[in-house]
Amino acid sequence: MMSQEEILVSLVQGRDGKAWAERQQTGWSVYSKEPACTWTGIQCDSMDRTTVVSIDLSGTKLEGTIPPELEKLPNLRVLALGSNEIRGNIPSQVANMPNLEKFNVSDNFITGTVPSFASRLLNTVDLSKNRLAGPLPEDFGTNHDRIMLYDVMKNILTGTVPGSVRDMEALETLSLSDNHFSGLLPTGLGMLQNLKYLYLDDNYFVGTIPADLARVQGSLLEEVWLQDNRLSGTVPVAFADSSNLLDLYLDGKEEYYVCDYFF
């Protein structure tokens, strides 16, 4: 059975990884005399003070891949590796970890597809600014009624937005900007009671803006970015009465018909 230290060290890969480990203030070696809970970027459970629950190595210039060995930390709640030089795909073993609450690997070089995450405790998924391709999983919103932020902007994702997005009842920010999504804008987004920021710009969406997106009563929407798509039709007049709405961007791609403004 691997120790926590041995599992964590699986993040240290190759010559560049060893150089990275040497730059850290404490730990990151199986020969380290310090327990894992004292290592740079590691937090342990506040009760037992021995169980690793958080790995946050954001912006530390870590190079390598996401090791599947991390699944052997079943109590891990936070995996934050954003703004590094992480390559390869997201292992299914990691996506299936049962207690993840925050998963952030933004601004890396990750390839492959967007996985289905198993944890029902997730509140943050940030996969933005990578090289992920293919469609979103059909069930990406299923059993994820705690997710508040879902961000996959600036990848090369394709396909339509699955209807399961309507199951994400706690969703505050949905960012799908700068991909290759197509088809109609998903209906039901306007019924998400907590949605504040909706970024669907710079894709290939077609058709009209769903009327429910412009509902007035109870809407918390502050920003709606739909520009640089292939939308047509008219802008729902109810947007004019949305008291919280600060930004509404609708400019279309040059070669396509742009929505008519009437307020």
From TrEMBL:
GO cellular component terms, semicolon-separated: membrane
Domain of life assignment: Eukaryota
One Pfam family this sequence matches: LRR_8
Keyword Transmembrane: yes
Key words of the record: Membrane, Repeat, Transmembrane, Transmembrane helix
Keyword set includes Membrane: yes
Subcellular location: Membrane
Entries under PANTHER family matching the protein: OS05G0588300 PROTEIN, RECEPTOR PROTEIN KINASE-LIKE PROTEIN ZAR1
Name of protein: Leucine-rich repeat-containing N-terminal plant-type domain-containing protein
